[in-house]
Amino acid sequence: MNPISRLGILYLISGPSGSGKTTLCRRLAGNGEAYYATSCTTRPAREGEKDGVDYHFLSIESFQDKMARGEFIEHAEVHQNYYGTLKSEVLSHLEAGRDVVMDIDVQGADTVRSLDDPILKKALVDLFVMPHSEEELHQRLSGRGTDSDEVIQVRMKNSLQEMTKWPSYQYRLLSTDRETDYASFTALLFAERLKTSRLLSI
Ligand code: 5GP
Hints:
Blueprint: E1 4-6, E2 10-14, H1 21-30, E3 35-36, E4 40-41, E5 56-57, H2 60-68, E6 72-78, E7 81-86, H3 91-95, E8 100-103, H4 106-114, H5 118-123, E9 124-130, H6 134-143, H7 149-163, E10 171-174, H8 178-193, E11 199-201
Parallel strand pairs: 2-8, 2-9, 3-8, 4-5, 9-10
Antiparallel strand pairs: 1-11, 4-7, 6-7
Helix pairs in contact: 6-7
């Protein structure tokens, strides 16, 4: 039998702030199951966040410079700040057969879906993670303790708007508890790896 290889999967995850999606993505990467595509942002770092690990924290000028040079796969304005994913954080990994997990907002997801790149189209698996109620979402946003009331209000409003976008995704995960969510999250990736359409003879 010929050896078989495959392209990496681009596991694109969206969901409102406080849905737990970042924790899922980080855990997946921490377990060595995928490469976490570190985004760029112009928002200030929260306490405990590290440059180059949580985000590449950039000035507006530097972000715009990268935009002008076409270095982003996608970028968007979210919660009054710029966010974007660098091509270098994604393409070479997929080509090397490494799965990449991306935590991006609904606008960024729309952009990635619309890109006319055969590798990205084949690689893309998108999942929307959502809390099971509005109350739960509010609790999660305020319970984080890292944002001001004003920031929480903006995020709550944006999150409710974002939640209407789940039908654009191939998959939806209604969050229950940490372990159950992670089990579903990994099960989906593991099943996608077995798809015959991903396999390439080499
Ligand atoms: P936070 O400021 O809470 O870390 O992230 C705010 C929102 O920005 C989240 O919904 C997150 O998914 C989104 N986000 C993070 N990185 C990117 C990115 O590279 N591109 C886009 N479009 N959204 C991002």
